[in-house]
Description:
Blueprint (H helix, E strand, L loop, with lengths): L1 H21 L1 H7 L5 H52 L6 H4 L12 H31 L2 H29 L6 H20 L14 H9 L6 H14 L2 H9 L2 E2 L1 E2 L2 E2 L2 H19 L5 H29 L10 E4 L4 H19 L8 H10 L14 H27 L12 H26 L10
Parallel strand pairs: 1-4
Antiparallel strand pairs: 2-3
Helix pairs in contact: 1-5, 1-6, 1-7, 2-3, 3-5, 3-7, 3-10, 3-15, 6-11, 9-13, 9-15, 9-16, 11-13, 12-13, 12-16
Amino acid sequence: MKSAVRISALQWADILVLYAMFEMQDYLTQVWGLSYTHAAGILNVWNGISLLLQPLFLYAVCTFLGNFRMLVLSSSSYTLGIWLVFMSAPPVLAKSTGTCNQYKQECIGNTQKALLYTGMALIAVGVAGNNVSVESFLKEQPEKSGGVAIGWLRVSGGGTVAIVGLAGAIALPHIKPWTYRFGIPAVCTTIAGISFLTGLCCFQFEFNGPNEGRIENMERIFSCPMIPMWLTFFVCGIITSTGNTYFVEQAKHLDRHLGSWEVPTQVLLLAQTWLGKLVAWLASYKGHWVVKAKMLGVICCIVAAGMERQRLGVVKSNWLLDKPEEDVPMSVYWLLFQFVLLEGSETLLENSVEGFDEEGTSDDLKELKRRFGEIFSKGVSGQERGCMEIFSKGVSGLGFMCGVLLVFVVGKLTSWFHFTLNRSHLDRYYWLLAVLSAATLVLYAVVRYYVGPQATVTSSV
Length: 461
């Protein structure tokens, strides 16, 4: 019981860090004075790195580290990273660096920039390591000390995560100084890390050396028949990268009132998660999950383009084109549709990968398992998350990073992006993403029809 609580605390502490990073778009535009595309590029590279590291860390866990050592590394990196982000806020080191202590662009020196970038890199390492090994390490604990307890935690832990998430979504936005917004998650992460490290006597961990068979299976994942699937995850990564960046930028100055309550933007993140999973559950009826996920992605981009066009119309009608800090008289809840559709598409795609570890009755799944064997089986000892799930996140991370390159190229070739959102045409970029996603959907369908079920890996589960 104690071991399960200590390990799960790493997940609970991550939630507040997630909300702190969710607001990083605002911090970089408001305090650092960056353009919204520059800020989005930094965040998408960070997200991409945290996802791209996961396959590498899984390989390290399989070959020489094991889950426990990985968690020691990731929790330490996580804690140090969020503290460096906290120290990058102007008031913290103002006297030492000789800069001003206000949240203004002129107060950001090279020291603050170095601390923030280094801290974000360390947090990316922590996120990747925790995602690879927390659940796996929980499963490695003995039945008498962790089995029943873990089951209990999965029931009550979900409620705990929901409570922590809701409390963070409501409380953190009302804390105005950025030092506190970064400092509170730093303290919570430190407590969780210390709790984990002081539980050495409670954990059961051993590493019996590299598993050559599973390592070989991971190397075979990038075989030619897998290309249509990787292309799917790559493009979905580009689309998903808009969620915590451009979607947030759209919502920043819209009307968030629900009656007399001004709803924090983070509540959109909670609603996106819960309602998106509901949409994914409804869409999963009768299989063909990847096709439906791609369709949801296309619809999401079309809806986002329509909402941005509507927002720009309100901006122009109220003469706000050159007043980016003014509130736009449009309800933020119009954007809830695109947030939910994005989460639904991402969840459905993840579920399609998780379904590989389950027994299926469809002919294409049977043929797939016959041909590729343990590629879709357990990744390491005690680990129930398949290698495919981790590798798919890595490919999505590559999509995040290439999304930055796509914005750069589009910005050079067109006049869609300007320094402020009100002067830009983000709706046209969403239309481009819709066309790109639709093209990969057509390619996926063509490959499945002409090559056969062995060339596609997620058609129906």
